Amino acid sequence: MANRSVIGVVDPEIKSELKSGASPEVDPKVNNNGYEPVHSKSPLFYDLYERKAELKHQTHYCPGCGHGVAHKLIAEALQDLGLQDKTIFVSPVGCSVFAYYYFDVGNVQAAHGRAPASATGIKRSCPDKIVISYQGDGDLAAIGTAEIVHAANRGEKITVFFVNNAIYGMTGGQMAPTTLVGQKSTTSPWGRRPANEGFPLHMAELIATLEAPAYIERVALSDNKNIMKARRAIRKALEIQRDGAGFSFVEILSPCPTIWGKDPVEARRWVLDKMTPTFPLNVFRDRRPEIPAGNEPPQRTVADVLEITPKEGAHDASKPKRAHRFKDVKLKIAGLGGQGVLLLGQLLIEMGMREGLEVSWLPSYGPEMRSGSAHCHVCLSKERIGSPLISHPDVLVAMNELSLRKFAHEVVSGGIVLYNGASLPAHFYAPEVQVVAIPAAEIADKLGSTKVANIVMLGALLEETECLAPGTALSVLEDKVKKLDLLEIDRKALTAGRLFIDEQAHIGAVSQPDGFA
Ligand SMILES: Cc1ncc(C[n+]2csc(CCOP(=O)(O)OP(=O)(O)O)c2C)c(N)n1
Ligand code: SF4
After folding, report:
1. How much is the pTM?
2. Which of the four pLDDT bands, split at 50, 70 and 90, describes residue 183?
3. Does 70 contact ligand 2 (Cβ within 6 A)?
4. Is 384 helix (H, G, I), strand (E, B) or coil?
5. Ligand 2: which of 98, 252, 259, 271 to mutate, judged by most atoms within 8 Å of the beta carbon?
6. 458 touches 451 (CB < 8 A)
7. Which atom of ligand 1 is nearest to the CA of 142?
8. How far does the centroid of ligand 2 lie from the alpha carbon of residue 476, in Å?
């Protein structure tokens, strides 16, 4: 629980008055001990740091750890620049992850090494926010090497604080890409040898080879003078982001006394004596990048960008002819490779685009493309889509029993499951949803091609949900299916699926002896 540090003594007169019990005109800045705190815990930190009872008198960080000092400097800069309410901190994996227990700002936890990618998404969707990626050396320079290089190369307008302590701290001292030559770690017990483990990675220098970054500096938390330089660098990096000038990166050489097996004072000295010769302190970049203007991402509909012109008679994307009754419809289509599962999703999004909707399609399949299990997520929406990932679909199209059993429980209560089968399998219960069994494979066989079972399901889906118009489906099929004989079967399959729903399907919630739920 970071205590308020108290520096600076009040006027002796006030002090003696306090001692004598007189009630002087007490300056509100003076505390009960008679001291005027001139340097105290930043209001940017939470008042209370939540910890387990037995640990409540200490922070997550070991005594002498550089993370605490780095936190303090960042908090101070954010506060002085008035950025607290605009800041979003992205903490990935490592001791850096604990940042969200301390900073009273927006906090997002990213997967190991992926903070620059998460920060990119956040900054691009909220350009007026201050987005900070706070990463250790294992995180940034090992598992996350690709993310940081590409974020820097794209000149994302984020700030990266890279806490380099030359080791994996959280996991007990494995070698990091920044471990020094000769430095022992649990995975380099004889000391790092360039012949075996390669040389330390110099991330600041590496990033300085790129054109886009605006500011790159390496600092050290080794002694007061260098800590003051670190303070300035941190502030400058944040100012650069505040001013929209570009990507800023501060590498902070930082003590990890616990894993290095040193006391806090020795550890600080080690930063100066041992780390700085390998990682020289320097400003590697301080200029606005020259990025050609006018390349802003287009704010147009997907159909517009892909130049999909509606066919005669189909719905015009710019002037939707039918008013969709939904805000969005989320579908999951699942089955085996070869059943046209992914294709069915693609047909739906093409139809959605032609009807002027926002769409997304996210395929997922195993290593075997043919005969392995496959599914796709489809979203049709009147508004821009936040994520293509669908955890709880409104509609599941299950092309086989495995998919039915695997995904039916994900469907929202009151949602619809369309199952490719003459009847529901034994012991299948889905009381919260409407389940319809459609013998799509049999219908397709009778029409002359098992392949069109997915189109039978499409017909059933359109009839059951009315999410898109059958006319749009026809126009998409006419464009996509080049073989005329197959197109004819597809037409019939679409109609057969619709007719089945109209004339034969029974809908319920629990499987019955007649096979329908
Ligand atoms: C995908 C994944 N791989 C590995 C780990 C194990 N892991 C946790 S922290 C860490 C390294 C942290 O080191 P560093 O980034 O240097 O941060 P420090 O703890 O030193 O601040 C690793 C490998 C994990 N949590 N997730
Ligand atoms: S293990 Fe190292 S990096 Fe982690 S909190 Fe302790 S001193 Fe800090």
Report:
1. 0.71
2. very high
3. no
4. coil
5. 259
6. no
7. 15
8. 58
- Measured from the Cα of 260, ligand 2's closest atom is 2
CA distance 30 to 36: 4
Ligand nearest to the CA of 175: 1
Task: Give distance in angstroms: CA of 256 to centre of ligand 2.
Answer: 5
Largest interatomic CA distance in the chain: 105
| Ligand 1 binding site (Cβ under 6 Å of any ligand atom) | 93-96, 112, 136-139, 163, 165, 167-171, 176
138: which 2 tokens? 């294992």
Question: Ligand 1 centroid vs 86 CA: distance in angstroms?
Answer: 28
The pLDDT tens digits for 341-373 are: 999 999 999 999 999 899 999 999 876 555 678
Contact 221, 253 (CB under 8 A): yes
Tokens of 453: 């079972």
The values of phi and psi at residue 75, to 5°, are: -60, -45
Q: Are 488 and 472 in contact (CB under 8 A)?
A: no
CA distances from 88 to 48, 104, 124, 126, 281 (A): 19, 10, 13, 10, 28
Q: Which of 65, 42, 51 is nearest to 256 (CA)?
A: 65
Distance of CA 68 from the midpoint of ligand 1 (Å): 18
pLDDT digits (tens, 9 = 90+) for 382-412: 998 989 999 999 999 999 999 999 999 999 9
**Does the Cβ of 354 fall within 6 Å of ligand 2?**
no
Token reading at 230: 């670190």
Q: How far apart are CA 18 and CA 23, in angstroms?
A: 7
* Main-chain dihedrals φ then ψ at residue 156, nearest 5 degrees: -55, 140
- The DSSP bridge partners found for residue 250 are 161, 217
